[in-house]
Amino acid sequence: ILFTCIQATPPAQEVPPASVDATNDQEPVSVNRLLDRLEKSGASLKSLHGDLTYRVHDSLLDEAETRIGRVVLQQKPDGDRRFAFVFEEVILPGGRGHKEKQAYIYRDGWLIQLDHAHKQMIKRQLVEDGSTLDPLKIGEGPIPIPIGQPRAEVLARFEAGFAPAPDHPLLKRLKDIHSLRLVPRVGTSMAEDTERIDIHYDRKTLAPIGID
After folding, report:
1. Cβ proximity of 113 and 122 under 8 Å
2. How many angstroms separate the CA atoms of 13 and 15, rounded?
3. What count of other Cβ atoms lies within 10 Å of the Cβ of residue 177?
4. Do residues 57 and 3 lie in contact, with contact meaning Cβ atoms separated by under 8 Å?
5. Is the distance from CB of 209 to CB of 201 less than 8 angstroms?
6. What is the pLDDT of residue 21?
7. Which of 52, 101, 143, 161 has the highest local Cβ count within 10 Å?
8. Exposure of 127 by Cβ count < 10 A (0-12 exposed, 13-18 middle, 19+ buried)?
9. Strand order in 47-58's β-sheet?
């Protein structure tokens, strides 16, 4: 059983102000309205960057490993995306930490893993030539970055609702957020090994700042 948190903070993205439906509502009227706003905001996204904390918790052993670094995502006008996760520090179970630089770079259908300590580079093709698969979509690819996904696609794969305020130490300090809970529908690929996904969005920019 794995428990994973991803946190990018502070949110920073290049989005034309008119592309974000900035309202003064304390909560969206409905989940559908939030999904529509997220789709609209993501379609105009140019870039997103911030600090990144990635934590995997093994519930059976009650152990966790945490990696700390940066995330950068760029999106072209045609919707093509590229990203980089650059980790510079790892904290092992027990709390002992050390510098360890690793990078994961995705572009043009290929994921490149760089291990500086071992001077290794591993290149994997995630998307075959001519394929329309988006590896960053929730429910479709192995690296879900939930930005700009059409509402119909989300609801085809998940039961969607509002998530409670996060209580995990990595995320509970987040304020002024919209929290979305996605539960994989029976029969979909994610239903086999995923109980739920909670995504926390900055209320003003609609950038994803926490994923559980």
Report:
1. yes
2. 6
3. 19
4. yes
5. yes
6. 44
7. 52
8. middle
9. 120-125, 110-115, 97-107, 81-91, 63-75, 47-58, 2-13, 208-211, 197-202, 177-184, 158-162
**pLDDT digit string, tens, across residues 149-186:** 899 999 999 999 999 999 888 898 899 999 999 999 99
Res 147: pLDDT: 77
Question: Both tokens of residue 3?
Answer: 């428990």
Name the token pair of 185.
């529908």
Q: What is the largest CA-CA distance in the chain?
A: 51
Q: Band the pLDDT of 148: cuts 50, 70, 90.
A: confident
CB within 8 A of 155, min separation 6: which ones? 35
CA 115, CA 122: separation in Å to the nearest integer? 9
Hey, which residues does 5 pair with through a beta bridge?
55
User: pTM for this one?
Assistant: 0.82
With tokens 């409905």, the residue in question is: 30
How long is the chain?
212
* Amino acid type, 7: Q
What average pLDDT score do residues 186-192 get? 90
> For residues 182 and 154, is the Cβ–Cβ distance under 8 A?
yes
pLDDT at res. 16: 44
Strands (E) in 14-162, as ranges, are 47-58, 63-75, 81-91, 97-107, 110-115, 120-125, 158-162
Residue found by looking up tokens 């996204």 in the block = 45
Sign of torsion over alpha carbons 17, 20, 21, 26: negative
Q: Cα–chain-centroid distance for residue 191?
A: 18
Closest CA to 202 of 184, 175, 181: 175
Whole-number Å distance between alpha carbons of 44 and 29: 23
